[in-house]
UniProtKB/TrEMBL annotation:
Source organism per UniProt: Vitreoscilla massiliensis
Domain annotation NlpC/P60: ranges: 89-225
PANTHER family reported for this sequence: CYSO-CYSTEINE PEPTIDASE (PTHR34858)
UniProt name for this protein: C40 family peptidase
Keywords per UniProt: Hydrolase, Metal-binding, Metalloprotease, Protease, Thiol protease, Zinc
Pfam families: NLPC_P60, Prok-JAB
Cited SUPFAM superfamilies: Cysteine proteinases, JAB1/MPN domain
Sections of the chain in a coiled coil: none
Protein family according to the UniProt entry: Belongs to the peptidase C40 family.
InterPro entries: JAB_dom_prok, JAMM/MPN+_dom, NLP_P60_dom, Papain-like_cys_pep_sf, VirAsm_ModProt
CDD domains: MPN_NLPC_P60 (cd08073)
Regions crossing the membrane: none
Length: 242
């Protein structure tokens, strides 16, 4: 989904009018027409959070296709509370911040996912984590987990997504490929501090130490060309959700 220029303009206008409180509302699709539907923020502390009245969800003329709110202090990413609420809504969220509107497609919380190859696997997890940071890259089709690994799927698709292989200097935000018998068959996101986020076959997605075992299994390290250190905040906000 893309937001029209008029929708973005209306969202920013409402955000400016509501400041220093957070604004909130919906993106609505009526037939083929997209529009912004502003709502009242009824939160107890509207400068710090937002709450849309329950009855605002009822009687909308059209389909609600995104939830909207603003960050008057210009925090560029969804907070942990935002991610928890987005996970409940299962909708894209638009964030007005820093004079622009950022759209975050819906993705389940990064931790606790059931493994389903091609739908919820290690590459999906990394793609969704980078989306929360504002970096989008396309998914790729899967066939069989072993055949894809043997065909070098990771080495082919990471460059397509904007990643460059680095030879030294592992840093937070890097993607670590691990291998069995010399074949890269798993990917993890290094979080810094000796921890990584990953989704292994037949396990829930989780954070765990980048231990000596995983270090021995490491095949290569990849870094996105648009990565900035402050983006890690977006991922940490998500994994802080209980």
């Amino acid at each position: 989904m893309k937001l029209t220029k008029q929708t973005q303009s209306d969202i920013l206008k409402h955000a400016n009018e509501a400041a220093p409180n957070e604004s909130c509302g919906f993106v609505v699709l009526t037939g083929r027409k997209q529009s912004y539907h502003p709502c009242e923020n009824v939160a107890t502390l509207p400068q710090d959070t937002f709450e849309i009245p329950a009855d605002a969800w009822i009687g909308i003329d059209g389909d609600i296709v995104a939830v909207v709110h603003s960050h008057p202090r210009n925090e560029p990413f969804l907070s942990g509370a935002d991610r928890k609420a987005q996970n409940q809504s299962e909708l894209p969220w638009a964030l007005a911040t820093g004079g622009a509107v950022k759209l975050f497609r819906y993705a389940p919380l990064l931790r606790g996912r059931q493994f389903v190859y091609g739908a919820a696997d290690c590459f999906t997890l990394i793609r969704d984590a980078f989306m929360l940071c504002g970096i989008e890259f396309r998914d790729h089709p899967r066939s069989n987990i072993d055949d894809d690994a043997a065909a070098g799927s990771f080495e082919q698709n990471l460059p397509d997504g904007g990643f460059i292989r680095v030879r030294a200097g592992l840093q937070a935000g890097d993607v670590v490929l691990t291998a069995q018998n010399g074949i890269a068959n798993h990917a993890a996101l290094y979080l810094g501090g000796g921890e990584m986020l990953h989704h292994a076959f037949d396990h829930l997605s989780r954070v765990e130490p980048y231990s000596k075992y995983w270090q021995r299994m490491t095949h290569s390290v990849w870094r996105h060309q648009d990565w900035q250190p402050e983006m890690l905040e977006a991922i940490k906000n998500d994994i802080s959700v209980i």
